[in-house]
Design goal:
Elements: E1 10-12, E2 20-22, E3 28-31, E4 39-45, H1 49-57, E5 61-66, E6 81-87, H2 88-95
């Protein structure tokens, strides 16, 4: 689902895969419970550089760009949207 501000995310699969975020000193700053999803998918406007950077920083990989089906008048919508994902296997590799 897309909000009028262009922030979007979707989770597909059976359950949510999780990750642990750590600060520069290695201290845990947040955890997401691992409840078994096969894949996380997140979408945002192509022009939303901040949102794209966050997706990349947490380990999601760019999958595709596509034309938006949004009908709301949102700045940057003409550039389309992008999709990122992380599979359970990618998360396992990232954690090892």
């Amino acid at each position: 689902m897309t909000t009028p501000s262009g922030h979007t995310s979707a989770i597909r699969g059976k359950k949510e895969i999780g990750t642990t975020n750590k600060d520069r000193a290695g201290q845990t700053i947040g955890e997401v419970e691992d409840v078994g999803l096969d894949k996380i998918i997140a979408q945002t406007l192509a022009v939303n550089a901040g949102s794209r950077a966050v997706r990349e920083r947490v380990g999601l990989s760019y999958v595709r760009g596509f034309s938006s089906s949004m009908t709301a008048q949102v700045e940057g919508l003409e550039a389309g949207e992008v999709e990122y994902e992380m599979t359970r296997e990618q998360l396992r590799r990232r954690r090892s």
